[in-house]
Amino acid sequence: MRPVFICSECGQEAELCMASLVKFWHRMNLPWYVCVPCQTVYYDKREIWDVVTRLRRIDSSAKRIPFKFIYRMVKEHMDRIVQHRIKHFGARRVRFKRKA
Predict the structure, then answer these.
(1) What is the pTM of this model?
(2) 16-69: pLDDT as tens digits
(3) Would you put residue 74 in left (φ > 0), alpha (ψ -120 to 50) or beta?
(4) Residue 88 class from Cβ within 10 Å (0-12 exposed, 13-18 middle, 19+ buried)?
């Protein structure tokens, strides 16, 4: 079950978006969050860590590649997505609060 994030600006529940990355013959669905009224974006590093962990658990070829290398590659992909959103849609990057 995915955690729920709250926008730190307005207090509304953030919308879940999924980015896809195809590497090592597997498609990774990478979660990131958007608050539409505030135009803010956020992705949780812990969730990215979990996606990479699951990939290494199911793919034997990914196990041979260092974890930090895959994590850094996926994190850079997410940074590019967020930067695109900031550049083209005027969004701001903020840290969302995890709903308890």
Answers:
(1) 0.83
(2) 999 988 877 788 899 999 999 999 999 999 999 999 999 889 888 888 889 999
(3) alpha
(4) exposed
